[in-house]
């Protein structure tokens, strides 16, 4: 995606899936064992990819599947300069106005007016 005129290059958000051990969990030792010694196996990472095709973070699993999916390299390239998508509730206020603005611009709406209106809507919803 090209950047805005006179601005920085456009960069995507990169979504990630993660597991963690909850600080107040009742079975922390079991959870730690599961996260550290089961979730880190290439077999599981490949199985997760096959169930929901998202590029695995585990390089051993990525090496196993990278020749089987022609789109995988495209996703990796697109995400190289991306920023990790913030995992905050305020992001919910962004998607609706952003998506509507994007659709309006694709449909021929004035870019400046549409982007400014979306920014105003988003700013008013994030406190």
UniProtKB/TrEMBL annotation:
GO cellular component, one term: ATP-binding cassette (ABC) transporter complex, substrate-binding subunit-containing
Transport found in the keyword field: yes
UniProt keyword Signal, yes or no: yes
Single annotated GO MF: maltose binding
Superkingdom assignment: Bacteria
GO process terms (BP): maltodextrin transmembrane transport; maltose transport
Signal peptide bounds: none
Keywords linked to the UniProt accession: Signal, Transport
Family: Belongs to the bacterial solute-binding protein 1 family.
Protein name: Uncharacterized protein
């Amino acid at each position: 995606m090209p950047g805005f005129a006179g601005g920085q290059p456009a960069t995507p958000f990169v979504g990630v899936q993660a597991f963690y051990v909850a600080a107040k969990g009742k079975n922390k030792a079991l959870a730690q064992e599961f996260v550290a010694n089961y979730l880190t196996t290439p077999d599981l990472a490949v199985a997760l990819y096959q169930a929901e095709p998202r590029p695995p973070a585990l390089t051993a699993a990525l090496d196993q599947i990278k020749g089987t999916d022609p789109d995988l390299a495209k996703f990796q390239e697109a995400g190289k300069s991306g920023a990790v998508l913030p995992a905050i509730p305020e992001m919910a206020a962004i998607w609706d106005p952003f998506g509507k603005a994007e659709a309006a611009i694709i449909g021929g709406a004035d870019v400046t007016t549409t982007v400014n209106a979306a920014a105003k809507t988003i700013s008013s919803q994030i406190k």
